[in-house]
Amino acid sequence: MTHAIKWIKRHEPGWLRAYLSQKKPGAGYDALLRLLQRFMIRKGFTRQRSSTRKHKTMDTRDEFTEMYHRAYHGFGPDAVYIVDETGFYYDMPPKYIWSVKGGEPNIATGEKHSLRMTAIHTVKADGTKLPILFIIHGSPGGRIASNELPTYPRGHFYAVQEKAWMNNTVWRAYLRSVLGDANDEPLVILLDNVESYTIVHDELGRVMAPFKRYLRDEWLGEEIIDGEDGDDFDTPTAAEKRVAMIKRVILAWDRVSASEIRISFEKAIPAPAANIEQP
Fold this sequence. Notes:
Elements: H1 2-11, H2 13-21, H3 28-42, E1 45-49, H4 58-72, E2 80-89, E3 96-100, H5 109-112, E4 116-124, E5 133-137, H6 143-148, E6 157-161, H7 168-179, E7 188-191, H8 201-205, H9 209-220, H10 236-255, H11 258-268
Parallel strand pairs: 2-7, 5-6
Antiparallel strand pairs: 1-3, 2-4, 4-5
Protein name: DDE-1 domain-containing protein
Organism: Aphanomyces astaci
């Protein structure tokens, strides 16, 4: 499906802009995906998931919600932080692989090895957004750190890591740079990428759902940068792609409103039922 969207972006940008202008903010990507899915089905293609996904039960959500309100009922919305780690690619990876009926499913090399980056987003339950931390794939202290980082958009934080992951070193720097100055009072920090919180990943992920919708829409409206599809992070084209990825995320983040964050948080962790006793 990524190939089809890239073809439209390259050869029919006018049609794509007109199509997206008719859709609600954050709904353009899903609408286009459904349109292309119907087209693929009519042409005799079938689809398979390119990765598996664990399904969480309502019981798990209810248990976490009850635990959260029992343990942290004394903290106001301005003291509750949600930290979300979102890995993304220059070419958005496909959820499904489309293939001719009877044929072998296949993902192109460019889709599997597209430039990868991680964005760390932090919000408060009251709707406040904190600066983004971008983790770029590369060698710490290398060419990207010395030549590129100083040119990236101001107002956010950047780190270089071999696998573009949030490791202990990056996490400590993030705590000092982003969360360290946020508040002098005790805080509640909910993480989606720490082992003790993996069982509620889907619930916390709902808080960032508006951002991820906007991110897909920004990708659709972004001009294609010609060049190699691989992730040779020393090529000039790769440097341009990294800047495009960072700008894409910032634009999507700017579109997320405080009210969307508050509503998403309330859906992810509903208010306690009347029969839950507070300690």
